[in-house]
Specification:
8 helices, globular
Length: 263
């Protein structure tokens, strides 16, 4: 099934954003075997939302041979001050750029950003300056690696942490587990998290139509995590939790758990 393609005239008429004037031009690509809409958006440094809008797509489903229009934008220099609750993922989506570009423009070696720091969101390097991190590597997981605390205490601490945050949505899902080195998996999540370099990262794979990518969640029996990945079999009320080893994935099995979407 072919998708309707916006004309170059329509693309050129896209209005400028509130953050600076942009000159837009368009190119057309052909979907190849193995392509995903997310992968195409990241490769071309555009947002998934824009890519779907330009091509009148209501879902993430694309087919080999489809023609997609991509509007390339020449951005002016823009700066953004990091606010409480921000993450690289949220900022990248807000300014229609990729996480890797933001990290490159700002000389960032990790996904940790600081409240009050100024980030370039259009190609001009700036140095983050603040001592209060916005994103922290999951505190429960860090405690597990430094000392062997009783599992019940860790669970209680995680539940207390999630209870103090605003719950946007709560649901019961079927949960399985996976590792970065499972067969056929690259180890890089749909949002760019490198699980090979961060084997203890608290990440879950979700159906973006149920739990938006980039959401902070609390998973019963797993703790606080980021919805940073997707999967072909992850549809509807189903999640896949990332664990460091295959033995842990096997021990997890298939469970029915409660999930709280915190933001």
């Amino acid at each position: 099934m072919k998708k309707t393609i916006m004309s170059l005239v329509a693309v050129a008429a896209i209005s400028t954003t509130a953050f600076g004037a942009q000159q837009a031009s368009a190119k057309e690509i052909t979907v190849k075997k193995g392509d995903t809409l997310w992968g195409i958006s990241q490769k071309n440094d555009v947002s998934l939302k824009d890519l779907k809008g330009w091509n009148n797509l209501s879902t993430d489903m694309i087919y080999v041979g489809d023609k997609l229009t991509i509007s390339s934008k020449e951005k002016t220099q823009e700066q953004y001050k990091v606010q409480k609750g921000d993450s690289l993922w949220k900022i990248a989506q807000k300014f229609n750029v990729s996480i890797s570009d933001i990290k490159s423009w700002n000389n960032l070696n990790s996904d940790i950003i600081m409240i009050g720091s100024t980030l370039s969101v259009a190609g001009q390097s700036s140095a983050p300056v603040s001592s209060e991190p916005v994103q922290k590597q999951a505190p429960v997981q860090k405690e597990q690696t430094t000392k062997k605390a009783a599992p019940k205490k860790e669970t209680a601490k995680a539940e207390s942490s999630s209870a103090s945050q605003s719950v946007q949505k709560e649901m019961t899902v079927t949960a399985t587990a996976y590792t970065a080195n499972d067969g056929g998996i690259s180890g890089i999540t749909a949002t760019g998290v490198n699980l090979n370099k961060n084997p203890n990262a608290k990440v879950i794979a979700v159906d973006p139509n149920v739990i938006p990518l980039g959401s902070k969640v609390y998973v019963e029996g797993y703790g606080e995590a980021i919805a940073a990945d997707t999967g072909g079999a992850i549809k509807g009320n189903k999640i896949d939790v990332h664990v460091p080893s295959k033995s842990q994935a096997k021990n997890w099995g298939v469970k029915s758990v409660k999930v709280k979407v915190l933001n």
